[in-house]
């Protein structure tokens, strides 16, 4: 039996039970129940939609809109929002389980912070109701592929299937990921970036990876996760975190560190935005900022 060691801060004045209540309230608002969050709820339209788009099904082609990608973002895997304003985009990748989601959504709601969530198609299959919960809470969704493969090893048709498969699943669950895409593992090259651009997606990387996914078994703690995010603080920073737990130790360090990350960034005068800000931002950085 693994003993959980978080090694970091908790939400001031807020218990995990209170965060769970916030999550459940969002779930009820979406018409689901606790059983739905695992994709096994009975009789929900979202569960039905998930069942009709299994991971073995060939995704139906969608009409790509390359014009959705602003010219200055084509050919790039964007690492920050081009701005001189003190704004930060918190982003969460979902490809494994959803162990950290109740805490993350509870913290974001409690602190009134928007975020962007990149979902894989398989995660949507397993957690269709959670897609609606994230969307209903006012957060932005993005596309993280269907099966989380290394894109540079894929032929062009497989890239299209991966992107469109996830898109179809997220749309069926009631949200729209377009035009935000994140490459699994950050694995990309000129060809793969051009391919997702042609499918109507902006490729979004990150400024800093908190490494919370490594867990305590990988030598990380919630304090170190928060320090990595804050040490990289700069206008337009994009922070990469994860929803799931570490498979070896069960920790959810990104969820545990989130209250401290928000508190320290706010103390430094920063506010929070979704990656929609990337689509409308003009490059207003000073020359020294690059």
UniProtKB/TrEMBL annotation:
Residues 86-273 form the NodB homology domain. One of its GO terms (biological process) is carbohydrate metabolic process. Residues 43-68 have a biased composition (Low complexity). Residues 34-80 are annotated as: Disordered. It comes from the Bacteria. GO terms for molecular function: hydrolase activity, acting on carbon-nitrogen (but not peptide) bonds. It holds the Pfam family Polysacc_deac_1. PANTHER family: GLYCOSYL TRANSFERASE-RELATED. This is Peptidoglycan/xylan/chitin deacetylase, PgdA/CDA1 family.
